[in-house]
Amino acid sequence: MTYQQLIRARFSARKFADRPVEPEKLERILEAGRLAPTAKDLQPLRIYLLQSEEARQKAKEVTQCTFDAPVILMICGLPGEAWVNPFTGHNGADIDVAIATTHMMLAATDEGLGSTWVGWFDTERAKAIFSLPEGVEPRAMLPLGYIADDCKPAPKHEIRKPLDTLVTEL
């Protein structure tokens, strides 16, 4: 599959088959997150693998958006270890998490799996339930697994603004 085919094939999967994800596929997905670029290569993130029944049940306590996926990745930023833009004061941890999460979503598609980016979850509760260390900030959850046969892209998936409304040459 070419990159263009990959980005067109990927959609937010919200229903997963009752089938485990092979460890070698999961390893390649996690490796994609590890290899993602970060500001100044500081890698201010942690990826928590939630695949035990206990961990997935805990995830359901912080969001209704687990979609019964066999694997959930919780991607966290470490603002205290991130690059800070000297012009704006903006901490880059959230951007670094976004890049790593995107890499893992695309890697999941390349592995024949589906995923969906979940930002709708109680981050404070997640920190408590998972006993996260101080300074670790949950930013994204990524349920992933084999897509159920009857899972389809959301109705707006194909609707995109025209390129000329998004790009302005200066």
Describe this structure in words.
The protein has six helices and four strands. It is α+β, with helices and mostly antiparallel strands and 170 residues long. The protein has a four-stranded antiparallel sheet with strand order 1-2-4-3, with helices on both faces.
Helix run count: 6
Task: Write down the secondary-structure element order.
Answer: HHEHEHEHEH
Strand content: 5-15%
Main sheet specs: 4 strands, antiparallel
- Compute the number of strand runs: 4
Tell me, briefly, the overall form.
Answer: globular
Describe the strand arrangement of the main beta sheet, using strand numbers: 1-2-4-3
Helix percent reads 25-40%
Integer-rounded radius of gyration: 17 Å
Mean pLDDT: 97
Low-confidence stretches: none
The N- and C-terminal alpha carbons lie at a distance of 34 Å
Give a topology summary.
Elements: H1 3-9, H2 23-35, E1 45-50, H3 53-60, E2 71-77, H4 93-110, E3 114-115, H5 123-129, E4 137-145, H6 163-166
Antiparallel strand pairs: 1-2, 2-4, 3-4
Helix pairs in contact: 2-4
